[in-house]
Amino acid sequence: MSMATLVLIALAALLVFWAVGAYNRLVRLKNTIGNAFGQIDVQLKRRYDLIPNLVEAARKYLQHERATLEAVTLARNQAKSASDVVRGKPAHAAAVVALATAEQALEGSLGRLFAVAEAYPELKADQTIRDLSEELTSTENKVAFSRQAYNDAVLDYNNAQGQFPALLIASLFSFAPSAMLRATQSDAERDTVRIEL
User: Fold this and answer.
1) Domain spans, the chain
2) Tens-place pLDDT, residues 105-125
């Protein structure tokens, strides 16, 4: 065997080892996104479980606000469905964007519920409502922390799959960029939902 043949074999072996390493790194980073979404999913499930209890507790005070209660329930169901889709594909950009949109609608309807609740002093005084509101606020904080970890994982993955030469492996094996979970789209929507009864 000639020296040139040995050099070519060594270069080919290095290229194969590099390609395997790049592929494995992309897989690991994609799995990190799945794990990070799993943390969000735990908190979202908790919130989705609390909302029907809150709506039911408020129903006896807000009999004339049936449309508001139905809007909260509908938004909760849509957000839960979107979350279920992302659970199956946590790095899929379109599913993450759909979840963010559904979550924004849910936050808006909850905001309207709490704005309406301000007009009912007996509702604000109800211990069950106060307890549920406190749990919901705590859960919202945990979602925010989990969202940050998810977005950090997405950033690492997107950087890895978008940089040359790993971009070649990403393109070859269809590693598409993922989307970050954004809180809201406009400055008006960035106002925090106040849950104080």
Assistant:
1) 12-190
2) 999 999 998 888 888 888 877
Q: What angle do CA 120, 122, 127 make, to 5 degrees?
A: 125
Any idea which residue has 């606020």 for tokens?
137
Distance between CA 185 and CA 190 in Å, rounded?
A: 8
Residue 153 has pLDDT above 90, yes or no: yes
Helix (H) or strand (E) holding 117: helix 93-117
pLDDT of residue 186 exceeding 80: no
Does domain 12-190 match CATH 1.10.443.10? no
| In contact, 150 and 93? CB cutoff 8 Å | no
CA angle 43/44/47 to nearest 5° reads 90
Averaged over 89-93, what is the pLDDT?
92
d(C-alpha 154, C-alpha 178), whole Å: 6
What is the mean predicted confidence (pLDDT) over 190-194?
48
Residue 195 backbone phi and psi in degrees, to 5: -120, 75
- Residue 128: which residues within 8 A CB-CB, separation 6 or more? 57
